[in-house]
Amino acid sequence: MHRWKFYGLVLCLLTAMAAGAQDSLLSAPVLFRGDTLFLLQTAPHNISVSERAALIGGRISSMYAQHDFRPDSLILTEDSLASRILYKGQVVMTITSADAAVSDLDRPTLARNYLTLIREKTGDLQSFSSMKQVLLFAAEALAVIAGLVLLIWLLNKLYRRVKLRYARRSYKPFVAGSYTLLSGERVRGLWLKTLAIIRLAVFLIIIYLALPVLFSIFPWTEKLADRLLTYVLDPLKDIFRNIAAYIPNLLTILVIWLFTRYIIKLVKFMAGEIERGVLQIRGFYPDWAQPTYNIVKVLLYLFMFVAIYPYLPGSGSRVFQGVSVFLGLLISIGSSSAIGNMVAGIVITYMRPFRIGERIRVGDVTGDVIEKNLLVTRIRTIKNEDVTIPNAVILGGQTINYSSCAQQQGLILHVEVTIGYDSPWPHIHKLLLASAAKTEGLLSEPKPFVLQTALSDYYVNYQLNAYTHEPERMAVIYSELYKNILDTFHEAGQEIMSPAYQAYRDGNSPAIPKKE
User: Fold this and answer.
1) What torsion do the CA atoms of 60, 62, 66, 71 make, to the nearest 10 degrees?
2) Which three-class secondary structure state does DSSP give residue 92?
């Protein structure tokens, strides 16, 4: 304070001496808060001395009114034309050689004196008003905190009302098909937990947004407030900017997806028409319709993915490409057998060796086909055993279909018996045909027939062949046929044995059961 008075006194004496030397010049005071800082006697040709003094005083007042004002931020710059007092890059006052000419000081010294006077005056006033400013800052901060507390209280009150309303409601269970995923009580609990999470998220957002407002009140925490806002605004700006930039790619993906979807619908419609027999294509069987539709659908989806891939976010990055290659390698290594079964399933579909519901034999397994897909075929045996056979095994082995010709031409069931040479073959033929005629499930037309398949050392091989339209009853028909052959031969007194068997008995009694 004393130093400011000393510089002021020196400056006043100097300006008075200059005024005495040049009585023709006018002077004007530079005022700040009603006090005179110094006098000006020169001005540029386009404004007067008083206008220059008022302009400089206004700049000093505006500078001081800033909430983060610091006197130390006033700096002095020098060049060949003038000396300038700056605050945060803004010119407060320009001292020229004309100002120095009306004083006994050179221009740099005069400029330093002006800078010292401005710093001292503003610094003293700031020290006198700092407590008042701190109290004002504290009041503003308390108001923000009070508003935040009030807002949180209102949100809590609203949350309690909404929670009570949802807690009293009855909710339907969430059902998928015949399975209840969530009961009514669990749905209610899920809603209440969702409300609690929303409340917590809103509280965190409000508090986070209130902190920059609170920090911006105090000059020494203003930078922290800007940083907090930057943490939120910069990611949001990047997100919205990226979304806006991605809109053309998104529209392209949407067009590709819609095109693929309607092509698949068209293929599905045509497959349904072919399966029902409405649409007939030469050489294309109706049972090929659904498998062909499934294959075309997979191929179309693969084409869609290939077309969409370049438009996916991050598809050009090395990380995305590396993950794609790694997943492709895992799939190719781990699914070699599955791919082999899929290829076999496709081949089997178009080979048509059997259909759903037909009686077939694969290896040692005989039964009805109950399921056929790209990977496996499932067969249900006569013992109600479900056997799963990979398609690759079926393609690489032998498959017997008992049902494919049963309805049109009839399936031939055959039984072999061996009779000695002492029995006339017409008699044996008659007995075998009579046994076939008694068996339910065997057809009278086409007529059964007997073949003599071999003349062995001790007996003749007779083979009875009969037609049936019921391959699914093979086991029962064979059992009935065997029973009828035994009954018919026993009633006729004909033994079913070979001379090799006769050599091991005394021959006194025939091997025919006695009638009861």
Assistant:
1) 0
2) strand
**pTM: predicted TM-score of the whole model, two decimal places:** 0.49
Every domain range in the chain assigned CATH 2.30.30.60: 338-401
CATH 3.40.440.10, applies to 411-502: no
What would you measure as the largest C-alpha separation in the chain, in angstroms?
Answer: 175
Beta strand spans in 301-445 (E): 359-362, 365-372, 376-381, 386-390, 399-401, 411-420
Distance CA 243, CA 250 (A): 9
Residue 423: phi and psi, rounded to 5, are -100, 130
CA distances from 294 to 213, 260, 301, 346, 368 (A): 61, 14, 11, 11, 24
Q: Which CATH number fits domain 338-401: 3.30.470.20, 3.40.50.720, 2.30.30.60, 3.30.530.20?
A: 2.30.30.60
Amino acid in the structure at residue 16: A
The SS3 call for residue 169 is coil
Q: Give the pLDDT confidence of 392-426 residue by residue, as tens digits.
A: 888 888 899 998 888 888 999 999 999 888 889 99
Q: Which residues in the chain are classed under CATH 3.30.70.100?
A: 411-502
Helix (H) or strand (E) holding 427, with range, is: helix 425-438
pLDDT in tens, 140-169: 888 888 988 999 899 989 988 888 887 778
User: 408, 413, 368, 406: which is closest to 387 by C-alpha?
Assistant: 368
